[in-house]
């Protein structure tokens, strides 16, 4: 079976006027199905660019991105949008729920956008798993940050995507709510076989992953399997020092 996501020699160069920034240097990566992958690295190391390219939100300057067996470079914008809707779920730091819709309608929104019928048993299971059965008719503003993020996770999973990309999903949460959200993502991987790719600055968050990729200067410089928070903090410090040295030399 093809990996959930494959990047082959993906490079991204941003050009503004005369200046060029290489945000990704020919990165290759396979994310197997059912794996929880964390992407870490200092500010500016290319985490967001990697995620945006892998999710079809940005176009690589060269190389190939294959999502759920489909090479997205060959798709036009309409087909790419469809593929994102059908095969990719997103969780953002700021939840991005629609304030005028109930929790229930927020969770099923991706299905309506894709003109797909909701499977009531699956929606009920998801709502139960994220612990929001009692909150379905509330508006997002009536929920805590942790509850809003759990609603966003249910929304990301409702269309049974091949992969969920989570961008700093605990960045706006207190410690307890953050732990609940991370434990929930972990359970979604363990119990539902969901593939998750999470960008995070936080070693304690990335320690929930099966594999952590540490980036520096647009490259994956280290891969840690079942990492501890201490190992990740050490690795991140190394990447930060390398980034400072490189900045000093340029
Ligand atoms: N739209 C853009 N135009 C020009 N340069 C960009 C653009 N987006 C990102 N960059 C540059 O590409 C490099 C990688 O940026 P990226 O946002 O991927 O890093 P990051 O690791 O996600 O950083 P952070 O942790 O601060 O969000 C940086 O040098 C950044 O300035």
TrEMBL record:
Annotated GO CC locations: membrane protein complex; plasma membrane
Listed SMART domains: AAA
A Pfam family recorded for this sequence: ABC_tran
Domain ABC transporter span(s) in chain numbering: 5-242
Gene3D superfamilies for this protein: P-loop containing nucleotide triphosphate hydrolases
Molecular function in Gene Ontology: ATP binding; ATP hydrolysis activity; transmembrane transporter activity
Alphabetical UniProt keywords: ATP-binding, Nucleotide-binding, Transport
Domain of life: Bacteria
Record protein name field: ABC transporter ATP-binding protein
Species of provenance: Kineosporia babensis
Organism lineage string: Bacteria, Bacillati, Actinomycetota, Actinomycetes, Kineosporiales
